[in-house]
Amino acid sequence: MKRTALFLGMAASAVALASCQQPASKAVGPRAEVSIQEIMQSQVDAPADVIWNATSTIVDANGEVTHTPRTDEDWKALRNAAVTLLEAPNLLVMEGRPLLKAGAKVEAEDEGWVSNGAQIQAALDKDRPLFNERAWRLQGAAQEVLAAVDKRDAEQMEIAGSKLIEACHACHGQFWFAPAKP
Ligand code: HEC
Predict the structure, then answer these.
(1) Which residue has the higher pLDDT, 37 or 59?
(2) What's the N-to-C CA distance of the chain in angstroms?
């Protein structure tokens, strides 16, 4: 009796499983939903600002005041930013992600010192491996930021923060600042 119940249960779950199966044609891998520009704005620039703004020294008539992260909340916010930054390069290198969403323009593209969307796209088409290598460099810098945050070491975080800026420039020099030469 017990056995029959068990068997019936198994059969029922097999039926349930079969009916859940996706048609073979449906893609189940990651899907790029937003553009490289949107990742740049929300998952690269925004968290990098959190890291860079966390430490500062203000010098005025009253002397020097150094601001560093202190509370658990401060460090928690920094950790969230570092984690976002660490995974962002995976999103940047993903296949099928457009550079811009329809109708969007690259920041400052009318000012002449940065490339426009078509120029950047051509540079990407010409040397995607270079773009990806620059993305991994960003990831390397983000790893150092996270390590410093986990040690709650503000000084080490500042050093990692300067490597982060270098990683931004290394890609921008190639793919954003004008004109990208395809
Ligand atoms: C792997 C390449 C790469 C790396 C690394 C990178 N960027 Fe970018 N970034 C780009 C490209 C390409 C553009 C131009 C397209 C666009 O506007 O997003 C850009 C544009 C931007 C823009 C302008 C976005 C807009 O509104 O058009 C900002 C802000 C920016 N990056 C910030 C950063 C910061 C901060 C870092 C480092 C923490 C960084 N980027 C690292 C490739 C990169």
Answers:
(1) 37
(2) 74
User: Ligand 1 centre and the CA of 95: distance in Å?
Assistant: 17
Distance from residue 157's CA to the centre of ligand 1 (Å): 21
Ligand 1: atom nearest CA of 35 is 18
Q: From the CB of residue 80, how many other CB atoms can be counted at a distance below 10 Å?
A: 13
| Average predicted confidence (pLDDT) for the chain | 88
> CA–CA separation, 173 vs 159, rounded Å?
21
Q: What is the tens place of the pLDDT at every residue in 11-45?
A: 555 555 555 555 555 668 899 999 999 999 999 99
Q: Does any ligand 1 atom lie closer than 6 A to the CB of residue 176? A: yes
